[in-house]
Amino acid sequence: MLDATASMASYASNGEDYIITRDTLLSGYEMYLAATPATHPDACPLWREDFHGLPPVHILTAEFDPLRDEGEVLYRRLTEQGVESSCQRYLGVIHGFFQLGGVSHAARDAMRDIAACGIARTITAAGAYSSSLPPSSYEPKGFAGSTM
Fold it and tell me: What residue ranges define each of the domains in the chain, with the CATH number in brackets?
């Protein structure tokens, strides 16, 4: 959770019928941070004004996740401030899909994509290779990982 106001569209479209709900997410915030305002930047990073100086960031979002829009807004904010970033939306999947690698092609694709991104960035940092996922990329992914 990057913004405890739950005001983004994906909370409305995906916040009831996909296992993790808007209420579940907000109850977690209330359990641990009840005394902290939902707009406090240390608790809810989307309320930060300055992202300069962060290391490279790779963000995964799931089509049917209440948190989807938060991740994609974070990607745009990071990119606007010059932070090396990439973002991939996986289509047809819910929050937590990454844990289903034994049964989900999308989860296996996500694991492969994360590994490829990390390897490429590590090699790039050494000056020997350019990432197949360029900095500041946004790539929706299909069920089997095909680019949409």
Answer: 9-141 (3.40.50.1820)
